[in-house]
Every structure is written in C-alpha cells, then in structure tokens.
Amino acid sequence: MRMVDLIEKKRDGRELTEEEISFIINGYTDGTIPDYQISAFTMAVFFQGMTEKERADLTMAMVHSGDVIDLSAIEGIKVDKHSTGGVGDTTTLVLGPLVAAVGVPVAKMSGRGLGHTGGTIDKLEAVKGFHVEIDKEEFIKLVNKNKVAVIGQSGNLTPADKKLYALRDVTATVNSIPLIASSIMSKKIAAGADAICLDVKTGAGAFMKSLDDSRELAEAMVRIGNNVGRKTMAIISDMSQPLGYAIGNALEVKEAIDTLKGQGPKDLSELCLTLGSQMVYLAEKADSIEAARELLEEAIKSGKALETFKLFLESQGGDASVVDHPERLPQAPFKLELPAKVSGYVAEITADSIGTAAMILGAGRATKESEIDLSVGLVLNKKIGDKVEAGESLVTIYSNTENIDDVKQRLYEHIKVIDKKVDAPELIYEVIT
Ligand code: URA
Ligand code: CA
C-alpha cells in the first residue's frame, strides 16, 4: 500500500477500507508515514468528509494505536461521561458519587485542566490529602467497593490521536466533524468505557458555538459509539453562560457538595440529573430514563449520594469532613464584590470571558506549567434573565490580592445588564440517542 494513493483516493471523495485506515494510523504512529503526507490526508478529510464506516474504522484504529485499559475486573457496565468542555462545569464532581450511589460503577481516569479552571483532579485536590496516585489494583478494588474512584492518566493511550491532534492544530484541520468525533471517542474507548454518555456544549463558552454544529458533532459521536459496540447517548446543553454559580476549584467542590445535598444551583442540578439518568439507564440499573431519574432523586434525598462522596474522598486520602465543614476547603484571603452599575436585567454573561477572568485570578492554567491557586475564583450572584438593582453584587470575587482592577474590568465588559426583560436560556436543547 502506498500513502500517496490513499491521499488521492480520499482527495477524490472515495471511501477508504478498514485496512487502508489502519495502514495510515499505524504508519503515522510508528513514524513510517511523515507529517506532510498526513497533513495532506487530514486536509482531504476536511473537504471530503468521512462515511459512517470510515469514522468507526478511524476511531478503532486510533484506539489500537496504544494501550487499552482493561476494566473487566470491575463488576457491571462501566459508563463514562464526556463533556466537550465548558466554564465552571462542576458536573463530573457531582455525577461520580451520584450515579455510584445507585450502583453504577464509575472508574474515572482524569487529567489536569488547561485554561479556564482546573480539571477534575485539580478540583478534587482542593480537598486536603486527596490523591490520585494509586495503582491499578487499588483503583479496581476501590471501584468494586465504593463504586467510584479516580486515577490519574497513565500509560500510552491513543498515541495516534496525540500526534494527529497536534498536527491538525497547525494545519487548520481541527474543525472537522469526523476528526473531532473520532478523536474524542477513541480516548473514551481506550480508557475502558462499555457505554458512553456525552455532554456536547453549545454557545459562547463552548468548542462548538452554534446549535447546528453541536448537533452534528453529537450525532457523529453517538453513531461512532453505537457502530463500534459501545452504547452511546448525547445531550446538547447550554454553555452561553457558566454552569452553576461557582468557577474555581475549591469553590466548585463546595458547589458539588451543595448539589449532592439537593441544594445546588438549578441548572447544574438539572444537568446532573439528566446526564445521570442516561448513565444509570446505559448501565442497565433502570428500565427507563424516568425510572433512572427517580433513583437519583431518591439518592440525593436519602443522603446516600453525599455519603458516597465522603467515602470516595476518604478512600483516596481526602479529608471528608469538608462535606459537613466546607469552610475547611482552601479559603482565598480576599472576598470582593462586583456591584452592578445600573438596574435592569442580566442579558449576557459570556462564558469564555468569565472563564478567562477566573484563570487570571489563578484558578486555571495559562500554560501546562502554571501553578494554580485552588482557593480563588468567582461566584456568580446573578444569571441570565435575573433582575438586578444598581449596587447589588453581580459576582463575588475570591482572590489572593486586592489588586484586581483588570479582572473587574473584564467582568464588567462581559456581563451585560439591559433595561428590557430577558428570558433565561434553555439548558438542554436536545437529547440524542
Ligand atoms: N477535543 C478532542 O479531544 N479532539 C478534537 O479533535 C477536538 C476536541
Ligand atoms: Ca459551576
């Protein structure tokens, strides 16, 4: 087989076979096919697209380019959740213990964050003593015992995707639905998921800004999953404004605790119940999405979800007393308010800009090497559609310095208050099964 012939075939819009796709991915992984040929190939895919069969074959070729995590020693159907990323997205912290409380095994491999706020591991490390440096045997034992555990990323997962993503980044070929969908799905499958629940974000703070693009991506991923034998569902949810109120690591742990108590922000709680219901259903712990939701609501009401969170923190060395004493989480030295300049209705809280403001405070990483401050961040006091009086606080800023004029100015620029009534945006646009 010659790579040049395969580039030509794709350039002319013909369908590649499974063998041909494996040849490309294996050759790129082992270095026998050079970057310039893969660049031409990804550009051909960008313009010609890929058939459903090609997308599934590409996904599995990337899965097999490296290690595949074997979770078969964990009892039950392992359902993984994936979010395409947003600002103040506290769902993973809530969903882990919540679905575990109804018997769904959550074997989570997580990373650190880049940008807006930390990743799941950073957030959990706001709990004193909590650590993810556990070995595989301990990880599996914990999931079997508590139904939830988190381990740091290890091993050589989807090396083909790592190389390809870096190359796409510099050849203007990131924005291709078949390439994005296979990239995301390959990582989930290599991490050992039997079933996958996807939260595709849409709006200013999301990777996909328009609903049409978000829908196309969600449908592409659901089809790949189902075509390669992993039951997959997706929802499309709003990321025009940050999710919940809190943006920042310790602040989001507190928000997750509130949500597990049934006292969380309305949007975060609803999103967790919606995604959680799909996870419980995919794990075959309920016969319908409605029955799954009832189980989750009961786990919150009975305190079982909160107990599971405590057990999970404790089992990985964390100080579980933060659940009853959130003041024991890292506290920022300064708590400052952002008063509204005029009365009216909140019309915009641009998610990505608010995320950047939290990052400037120190809640996120500008580069992979940056240190983050787990205590700092923002708590929104108003969301889109809320009425506000001049002088009332729009945002509470948790900071390690009083000198935050740049952050305040950024927040004022991206939180618009107008004098006309505004409707709150829809939270969940679509459910795709
Ligand atoms: N996220 C990924 O993991 N892969 C892509 O291709 C785009 C976003
Ligand atoms: Ca939040």
Quick synopsis:
This protein has 433 residues and is α/β, with parallel strands linked by helices. It is built from 16 helices and 13 strands. The chain has 3 domains: 3-49, Transferase, Pyrimidine Nucleoside Phosphorylase, Chain A, domain 3; 79-324, Pyrimidine Nucleoside Phosphorylase, Chain A, domain 2; 332-418, Alpha-Beta Complex (Aldehyde Oxidoreductase, domain 3), CATH 3.90.1170.30.
Secondary structure layout:
Blueprint (H helix, E strand, L loop, with lengths): L2 H9 L6 H13 L4 H14 L3 H12 L15 E5 L7 H10 L5 E5 L9 H5 L11 H11 L1 E5 L6 H11 L7 H14 L4 E8 L8 H17 L3 E8 L7 E2 L1 H12 L5 H17 L6 H13 L2 H12 L18 E6 L4 E6 L1 H11 L15 E4 L6 E2 L4 E7 L5 H10 E4 L9 E5 L1
Parallel strand pairs: 1-4, 2-3, 4-5
Antiparallel strand pairs: 5-13, 6-9, 7-11, 8-10, 8-12, 9-11
Helix pairs in contact: 1-3, 2-4, 2-8, 4-9, 4-10, 5-11, 5-12, 5-14, 9-10, 12-13, 15-16
The structure holds uracil and calcium ion.
The site of uracil (URA) has 7 residues, from helix 9.
Pfam families: Glycos_trans_3N, Glycos_transf_3, PYNP_C
Subunit structure: Homodimer.
Protein name: Pyrimidine-nucleoside phosphorylase
Would you give an account of this structure?
- This protein has about 425 residues and is α/β, with parallel strands linked by helices.
- The chain folds into three domains: about 5-50, Up-down Bundle (Transferase, Pyrimidine Nucleoside Phosphorylase, Chain A, domain 3); about 80-325, Nucleoside phosphorylase/phosphoribosyltransferase catalytic domain (Pyrimidine Nucleoside Phosphorylase, Chain A, domain 2), CATH 3.40.1030.10; about 330-420, Alpha-Beta Complex (Aldehyde Oxidoreductase, domain 3).
- About 45% of the residues lie in helices and about 15% in strands.
- The chain has a four-stranded mixed β-sheet, with helices on both faces. Strands 6-9-11-7 form a four-stranded antiparallel β-sheet, sandwiched between helices.
- Strand 4, helix 10 and strand 5 form a beta-alpha-beta unit.
- It starts with a helix and ends with a strand.
- The model has no long low-confidence stretch (mean pLDDT about 95).
- Bound molecules: uracil and calcium ion.
- Uracil (URA) binds near residues 174, 180, 183, 184 and 207.
